[in-house]
Amino acid sequence: MRRLKFLLSAMLVIALFISGNAQQNNVKNNQKNTPLKSQGLQWVNVGPTNLGGRTRAVMVDKNNSSIVYAAGVSGGLWKSTSGGTSWSPVNNTENMFISSLIQDKDGYIYLGTGEYFASPLGDNNGGSGFRGNGIYKSTEPNGSEFQLLSATQATNVSSPFLFINQMAVNLTTNRIFAATHRGLQVSDDGGVSWYNPISGTLATQNCYDVEVANDGTVYVAMSRYIYKSLNGDNASFEQLANPWGTNVARIEIAVMPTNSSIIYAVIINNNDGNLNGAYRSIDGGANWELIGPGGSTTFYPFNQQGTYACALAVDPHDQDHILMGGIDLWEYYYGGNWEKISLYYLDETSVLYLHSHQHKIVFDPNNPDVIYIGNDGGVFKGVRDATYDIFTFTNANRKYVTSQFFTIGCNSYNQLMGGTYNNGTVLLPRQTTDSTKATKYLYGTGGYVAMSNLDRKMIIGSYPYGELYRSNEFGGNSQTFYSSGVTAYIKSIGGPEAPGSDGFSSYLAPILLKEGYDFNTTDSITFINKNDTTLHIGDEIMVQNPVSGLYISDTLTIELEPGDSIKVQDYLFANLFVGLRGSVWMTRGLHDYSAPPPWYKIASIPNNEYPQCMALSEDGDYLFFGTTNGKVYRVSNLRQAKDSLSADDRSVYCVVACDQIYSISNRPITSISVNPNDPNKVLITCGGYGNAIYVYYSINALTDNPTFNNKTGNLPKNPVYSSLIVKENPNVILLGTEYGIYTTDNITISSPNWTKDNEGMGNVPVYMLTQQNFYTYNTPNYGVIYAATHGRGIFANYKYRIVSIDDYNNNLSSFYVYPNPTTDFIYIINQDFNDPFAIYIYNMNGQLVFAKLVSEDINSTIQIPVSSLNSGTYIIRCEGNNKVYSSKFIKE
After folding, report:
1. Where are the alpha helices (DSSP H) in 832-877?
2. What's the rounded Cα separation, in Å, for the pair 670 and 686?
3. Rounded to whole angstroms, how far apart are CA atoms 678 and 674?
4. How far apart are CA 867 and CA 542, in angstroms?
5. Model pLDDT for residues 263-284, shown as the tens digit of each residue
6. Quick one: which of 552, 524, 564 has its CA closest to 4?
7. Going edge to edge, which strands form the sheet with 631-636?
8. pTM of the model as a whole
9. Which domains does the chain have, with CATH numbers?
10. pLDDT tens-digit profile of 372-398?
11. What are phi and psi of 24, to 5 degrees?
12. Residues 185, 186, 190, CA angle at the centre, nearest 5°?
């Protein structure tokens, strides 16, 4: 009888190495013999330490230029004591969505929260802004502890302190000004109480900016006007002349500190986000001169994004010199021309490079030749060359860990990657001298990612709206790989034909990679006898899998003459799934780099629906996906889907079925998690603000009519962005929320108790959670949980990491491996294993290089061919029913 032996990758080991009660008893992890609880998670930041995230608040200490403060819009406050060369986080505040900061005359620091200009939605589909909850004040001058000013606590959407766009301070009187989304707020008592000094119908309109000159004169940009007061007193503001009209989406202002009559204003169009006009006044706003006309094809600083990114500053030593930030940084001297002085697409090491989208420009009050810029790439420092009167720039993001991740991927080689907001799709190889530094794979905004465990160099990244790329060189040799049938179909249902265009998919098209083995596959690899001699019945042959480079072993049942060939069953598979407009697609040809692989449409949904998140059952037979409008679908029979006939739902022979199993009216489904041990148990989470239910759970998700029960319990009523069911104990659930991680140790009860588990992380949004559950020998991160935060990079938790496997020989007195060293074969004499057992061979890097299942002639001498292995030391491991044997051998 024919006996097939096989080599498998790390995926195989999950089934053969980890499965079974005997194996589970041998697993040691950090919580052995103790119950898993919903408290006590310790999170460790793993980077990137060389990338900053969107920054709208930068401030130089008024007395010490070496001290600089900066705040990520979702990463909290950071401090540098070296003029921006390195940073450290300041004590976490309850709300880390800092949009502005000031220092009063006594040294107290104020933090304004909430990012109005990023349009917070709470949907986890590209949304990057968040609501604030008021203003925080340091408990002492230059302090690192902050308390929320109770009078500013934003308890509902009508509170003016939900979004603080800008703050300013009169350094003589210590009067504090806050430009909020519902008007100007003023405090004369250090933030204890506040009032709106402007009356009238526009008093509670969006207040974009506030500036205070040295003499106390205050300018406020609100609605489509600029207001002025000589001192900021209540009812002292007057509305200034408005030559720019009503087409206004945002106004940014800058006043000359030593001459309050000199004021500049940049007006952004309401209809397209471009420049309406840049203006200058030399008489305190009584008259305005247009110095930068909008509508120009050559002067186009905002590229329709001025509502989101607009910055303005006047040189404190030259009232005729200003800097304006849009996509890039521009410079203007009165009477001259506008000059672009940075380019976002230059090499990042260039002295003229600034990351795109400028949000804040700050002159060092003690040295006007130094500026700091906050943009989508964090913090940059500019120094003016006195000889040539030009600014050169350096990246000032070392250890300013504020990058905003949407997604994360990991593999069993301890490598990470993720998609970020406007900071690219980045790689953390984690095998370099500084394992916390990232390199960029794709630039711009990154979407979903995936990493192969069959081929450690194979990665998948994406841009918004479903533009996929793959690389088989860990970032090099990148290519798109949709077939023409995919793009043609999207066009046929009303979408654009080109990936990357609005309407091709949701903003972030979900992708999933499932790799492993399939004993029922019809796939095969051709073995050719290249020897000069005949191979006989019973001989072992080895053929290399072109996907992973691993070997599959077989025992010949026929004679094979030189030059003859035979098909050997190939168990390995790699299924990649992507959710696009009105459809979900699968390819089985990810690793075939010769041409775009065939894609199969495994699910069709209404053309105006967009998948937003996906999850697979452990065996790969069921795919669950949720949409942007609250629908949940189940795709079944995927293990039988092999080709266009069986997998594509347009085929009459298709075996795949897609069913809607739940619906939540007009709420985005932000995540789905499937119990690794029971696909009937499925958890879904929802986004959006102002709702009562955010977590649902089903214990019969595979039935015709599943029920999903509310499991929100005592969870705070904020968007939930991600979820994870812990493999080691599926009753333990992790949720990634707008304010960090919440956990429960018992999802089965009717109203679970959720506990905040943010130690080491802080109240930062967590957009994705994943657990590394692929095992190879000496895998360093098996069981590690990774969190993609939108504001503080990537965190890891090691509580469930398997730190060792009990290698014991069970007194196997009649089990021998010889010869050692060897060249061509090793032999196993077995009289202890009486049931089928598995043989694994690992190299010293922990990579599985050979696997064989022994199910026949168990007690005979077993021959293992090793001639194809490189010279070196290897570990052979044999596992059976409650028995394990392991040893080293040398291949010469």
Report:
1. none
2. 5
3. 8
4. 10
5. 999 999 999 999 999 999 999 9
6. 552
7. 611-616, 623-627, 631-636, 657-663
8. 0.88
9. 10-26+807-891 (2.60.40.3080), 46-390 (2.130.10.10), 524-569 (no CATH)
10. 999 999 999 999 998 888 999 999 999
11. -60, -35
12. 125
